[in-house]
User: What shape does this take?
Amino acid sequence: MKNSTIVSVILAVAVALLYLLHFLGNKNGIITQGTENAGTSKFVSIAYVKMDSVLFTYELAKKLTTNLQVNQESFNKEYSGKRIKFEKEAAAFQEKVRLGGFLTEERAKLEQERLVGQQQEIERLDYELTQKLKEMQGQINQQIIDSISSFLKSYNADKKYDIILNSASMLEGTPKYNITKDVAIGLNKRYKP
Assistant: This one.
């Protein structure tokens, strides 16, 4: 479950970053030739970043992912505890009904209704905790995207690249245009816990 959360966070951040970088037109490292107008050509400088590597080394991303995992474990523990308690009570109820342990049918019906209400409460709790985790994950993704985007803007102020790509969207790239290490170092240098 931890691995799927980490992968989900990384994939969501990578997709959002790709979208952001595509539409912001940030600049970084590779030089390719394209045409600007008919008959004229302009060099476009392009660089790429391996976002999965950045996310695994960026201290802010690691901290936020760890916090999310702690919350997820806490939510799972809370849900599991209530679910196990309910299952024990439901099994005890079924056993009591089987043995004829209720004095009246009305008393058995009241206990059954209480258990149904408890089951609905557990289902509601599961839904609420899942929604909270999704909301937290969305906030974490946005915080990481904002941080990386802000860094890339300041980084690119000096570098003057036309395009910075996420390597996940590339089929092949020359290593000299890979700015992953610079970005990871810069992000961690700028990050203050």
